[in-house]
Specification:
The chain is mainly α. Helices cover 61% and strands 7% of the residues. The chain has helices spanning 3-20, 22-37, 52-69, 72-96, 104-123, 125-145, 149-160, 169-197, 214-221, 230-233, 264-267, 287-292; strands at residues 201-205, 225-226, 237-238, 241-242, 245-246, 251-252, 276-280. The strands form 3 sheets. It has a 3-stranded antiparallel sheet with strand order 2-1-7. Strand 3 and strand 4 (241-242) form a beta hairpin.
């Protein structure tokens, strides 16, 4: 397996591995929260008593939530995931020989930024405030409305736990983010590589799934892409075929709003796209294609 194949594999496997650990962590969090809410005052009918004592209990639980959400197991899973940025960076260095490029220091810089952003998103205030706020609101509403205690516990179960029918709160929060974080980091490396080599030719590579977008399917089948084609490709026109367009963005379905010729190599087919637009050496492109695009302006 080449270094590029390993990178593509990690873009799929690393996020899946991280997310697969979350259901067990969600169960731990649910158990700790349920233990805490048992201290609420409940009347004979099973309702949470709407009084100041219960609001004080909720305030105490909300303070504990942040520590619960950042459990040892969760932080360990995040730590393992963040290692993949180094792995992808090292594989890219081997495949593209980054050190030979004049902008090679940029590769380390974007890796450091990507790691910092990921840690902040998965363990920082963005993560804790989003999840704590959601759960805290549920607890406060139950007290102020005098809701049934069993309904509160069931609501926490539904919100927190991943089942065959629904995705838990932590998994929902992390699922899209982790895939995009690695994919866009890899795309940023590709962009630096293309800039360093002044690349005019690319290939769109990666495996196809049942959920693959029409745009990605067609572009992976297109063997060689010249830089001058990108503006038409982003309009969904690929070798005579017109992809379906999302009217709000003017882009093929699934693509991120704001994707353009300059950042397409980073954002590619959109959220959770684990394909890569890879710069290639012109000599690997068939001569008849090189001749066809010889005089195309970029």
């Amino acid at each position: 397996m080449s270094e590029l194949d390993k990178i593509l594999s990690k873009l799929t496997d690393a996020p899946d591995s991280f997310v697969s650990k979350l259901p067990d962590i969600e169960k731990q969090i649910f158990g700790e929260i349920v233990t805490s809410v048992k201290s609420l005052q409940i009347d004979q009918s099973g309702r949470v008593v709407p009084n100041i004592e219960n609001l004080k209990v909720i305030s105490t639980i909300k303070i504990k939530l942040e520590k619960v959400l950042l459990s040892i197991d969760y932080k360990s899973a995040v730590k393992d995931f963040v290692k993949e940025f180094n792995n992808i960076s090292n594989l890219g260095a081997e495949y593209f020989n980054f050190n030979a490029l004049p902008n090679n220091e940029m590769f380390k810089a974007i890796k450091d930024i990507a790691i910092d952003n990921t840690l902040e998103s998965l363990t920082g205030t963005g993560y804790t405030s989003t999840v704590v706020s959601k759960l805290g609101d549920m607890l406060v509403k139950s007290v102020t409305s005098g809701g049934m205690y069993n309904d509160l516990v069931e609501g926490l179960r539904t919100e927190l736990l991943t089942t065959d029918k629904s995705t838990g709160l932590l998994s929902r929060y992390a699922n899209v983010y982790v895939g995009d974080a690695l994919s866009q980091f890899s795309g940023q490396q590709m962009a630096l590589m293309a800039e360093g080599l002044n690349s005019k030719w690319f290939r769109y590579v990666g495996s196809l799934k049942e959920t693959s977008r029409e745009f990605c399917i067609l572009l992976t089948k297109k063997e060689y892409i010249h830089k001058s084609e990108l503006s038409e490709i982003l309009k969904g026109r690929i070798d005579g075929h017109q992809c379906k367009i999302y009217q709000k963005t003017g882009l093929p379905l699934g693509m991120m709003d704001g994707t353009n010729v300059n950042n397409f190599i980073v954002y590619k087919g959109g959220h959770k796209c684990d394909h890569a637009l890879v710069p290639i050496n012109e000599v690997t492109v068939p001569k008849h294609l090189r001749d066809k695009f010889a005089n195309k302006s970029l």
